[in-house]
Write a structure and sequence with these properties.
7-stranded mixed β-sheet, 3-stranded antiparallel β-sheet, 18 strands, about 20% helix, disordered N terminus, EXORDIUM-like, apoplast, signal, secreted, Protein EXORDIUM
Length: about 325
């Protein structure tokens, strides 16, 4: 299935702050608000991107069921091209990131491929730092995963764990440790805290048009919402890992590969409407990408810098 263009991308504001020697990209998702395009385009700022073999390390913070972990882990595995799934697929979405961004920045003697490797997983189900986390503690937890240079540490927090700014200004964030050369991502389960903000369109929005919620493809509103936010953050983490890669607007509040198209998932999307999506004939769930092990997912549109349009899978 060919990729489709959306000529009027829906934009949202991002927040960014600094913590000691760490660079953090704070993303907020106000899904039912439209923001006018910024005058400067999403461009390359001559910095590093992540390419080649990208090892992924995961920390599960708090209580997650085996089924919930499998949904997210299968999504990560779906990013690898050798995980065969019919198009439209998560691998096809990932290849678009490589085409639009990573391949444009790589040096002639650098890697010509991008491969996601699931390196290791750590469980902290007792919540060693408590259930109310600051942003500096997120970076501490990321370091506990043992991230490798050129890799990404993923920190997932359970539904009863609060994080500074969660629901109020962000659904997830990506940042980096420049000294050790790795990026990290945090995404929280919003199902009991703010599903209308961070799990839309699988929950009615907290404001704006009150369109019916869509059925999530993996039958878990919170986890399917986490996948959407993880996809947005990983697109930013690989294309703008240290704050000098691909972004639009001020460096302190950038729009990136996926966050420049927030709320767009299919052709015809507009405020409060995710677009024309595929529907599972058995479950009635909405999705736009096939994944590993027969999974289905909803992934965000990607901004095409060459045409200044949002590109969707369906």
């Amino acid at each position: 299935m060919s990729l489709l263009n959306l000529s009027k991308p829906i934009l949202f504001l991002a927040l960014l702050a600094s913590l000691a020697s760490l660079t953090l990209g704070f993303q907020s998702r106000k899904l039912t608000e439209l923001y006018p395009p910024q005058p400067d385009l999403l461009t390359y700022h001559n910095g590093a991107v992540l390419r080649g073999d990208i090892p992924i390390s995961i920390l599960w913070y708090g209580q997650f069921t085996s089924a919930q972990k499998a949904i997210i882990s299968d999504f990560i595995l779906s990013l690898t091209a050798n995980r065969q799934a019919p198009n439209p697929s998560v691998a096809q979405w990932w290849n678009t990131i490589d085409q639009f961004y990573l391949s444009k920045a790589v040096k002639s003697n650098g890697p010509k491929y991008t491969n996601i490797l699931l390196a290791n997983q750590t469980i902290d189900d007792k919540c060693s730092l408590g259930k109310s986390l600051t942003l500096s503690q997120i970076s501490q937890l990321a370091a506990k995963t043992g991230p490798r240079k050129g890799g990404i540490a993923l920190v997932f927090t359970a539904q009863d764990v609060t994080v500074e700014g969660f629901c109020m200004s962000r659904c997830g964030l990506h940042g980096s440790n420049k000294r050790n050369g790795y990026s990290y991502i945090w995404v929280g389960n919003s199902v009991t805290q703010c599903p209308g903000q961070c799990s839309w369109p699988f929950h009615k929005p907290i404001y704006g048009p009150q369109t019916p919620a869509l059925l999530p493809p993996n039958a878990d509103v919170g986890i399917d919402g986490m996948v959407i936010n993880l996809a947005s953050m990983i697109a930013g983490a690989v294309s703008n890992p240290f704050g000098d890669g691909f972004y639009q607007g001020p460096k302190e509040a950038p729009l990136e590969a996926a966050t420049a198209c927030t709320g767009v998932y299919g052709k015809g999307a507009f405020s409060g409407y995710a677009g024309n999506l595929l529907v599972d004939t058995t479950t009635g769930a909405s999705y736009n990408a096939n994944g590993a092990h027969g999974r289905k997912y909803l992934v965000p549109a990607l901004f095409d810098p060459a045409t200044s349009t949002c590109i969707t899978l369906v």
